[in-house]
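Checklist before submission:
- one chain only
- standard amino acids only
- sequence pasted in full

Submission:
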Amino acid sequence: MGAVMDTDRKRRGRRTSLAVIGGLAVIGLGATGLGGTGFGETGFSGIAMAAGPAAGDGSLVLTDKGPVRGTVSADHREFLGVPYASPPVRWGSPRRAKPWTSPRDATKPGNACAQNAGFFGEKASDSEDCLYLNVTTPRRPAANGKRLPVMVWVHGSGFRNGSGALYRPTEMAVRGDVIVVTVNYRLGIFGFLDHPSLDGGPARNRSGNFGLEDQQAALRWVRSNAAAFGGDARNVTVFGESAGGVSTCSQLTSPGAAGLFQRAIVQSGPCTVENWPDWDGTVDPSGSWLPRSRSKAERQGQAVATRLGCPTPATAAACLRALPTSKLLKESEYGFAPVYGGGGVLPYSPKQALREGKFAKVPVMYGMTRDEYRTFEAAQQLMGVPPLADEADYAARVRAYVGAEKAPKVLAQYPLRNYGSPSEAWSALVTDATFARSVTDFGQSVARRVPAYAYEFADAQAPWVADVGTPGFPTGAFHAAELQYQFDTDYFDEGRLSPAQRRLADQMTDYWTRFARTGDPNVKGAPTWQEGNITQVLAPGKGGIQRIDFAKEHEYAFWKAL
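Returned file contents:
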């Protein structure tokens, strides 16, 4: 690391590295109006008239903006790089896509949104013309002419990296007999910069949540065009993992998403967390990849604008919009995430909205992986942060996290002797203090008001990320591990799944798509889920799928009392 490196710059760099991987990684309040968003004001009555099938072989589909020609395979169809909005004005709300007349090529993905290269191998992009989505459908028509459920995937990667095209949902679409839509949305500084000078003008809402607005625009596109692809616009499930899970949780509480979906699945999206640790154990002041208050976000935005040479409030908006993408990308990994309060897309924090029942009353699935934080601990080590060497290092980090007064209690609850290494002990502690507490809080809020089903992905032998070095401790059921059981994705080598793991993947697909179809994941002939706060463990092998006391396993009562 170099002893002569500037301490503040080193600390910020380490925080940035963790932020890059946070959120590997994605909505109504009743069938009300659209809140003046400028998309799809005709509502459900215009769906069939706006778009419809156009070619006998299924390769050509007429959307509400024009025809698209995709790819037809033996068991599925793909339509890639379909614009759901026009190229955005920088820090402006998404606008309708312009219509076209000739068939548009939909055989390759659109541009990924501007981002730096990511920890999980995401490639850098300098494109701000990136509001595209991808549609995968089964090849055969729906049985009895019925329209298929639509599942809209919101990707993760810390609100800093990723794209919809990195997740190829062929197996989910074909086995589950559903339509899957994967979505791009603006990331980092382009999607979540909050600055008072950016309020108004091309921004229909207050600044800070342009990425969430993009997701809502994509959901409106789905509502207008689902029928053209054989889908049911009245049966839409939004789902996402990590940053995509935080997005899904946020959309549940956003008035602008009202009526745009009928079910939601929150995977590893700890949207109520307020104590995310920095690399040294201290609570990250930026909030990292988790929702932050308007006041915190505006302070951050003003500091970023000053560093970029735009310190004057009266001219900051024009100054920032004039900067080249490459210069903005240098600041695009510093704690950008959804913003709540002060009006705008999220009037309340997700934590408050959930607690007070101010969220969409739709069936919900939610959960996490058993060893979430091991991914983040691994990232620190692989990026140069020295691993915890011994009990003294471990105790020092715990003191930094909870304070000297509470540290003895925490160390007694998580003694090093119970774990194979200090990294495993620290990871268990943070998993329980952040992810598991948030998941439990989320479940307690929603299960009182809507059908809710909880899960924990617990395959301790889940293959680690492809082309990323293995850390010096077992990675277990790490953050993002379940993605390889759901998608063909660049992050993982699908061929590394064992036969038992492959069977688990099939069972998970059945559960997820059954929930999308009916609002209940239970499938005939498979272990049953119980509604409420009873958690279903998902692991391979005989007895791998079972129920547990999740709150007890993850020491919820201890952390709540602390």
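Reviewer check: Residues 59 and 70 are 5 Å apart (CA to CA).
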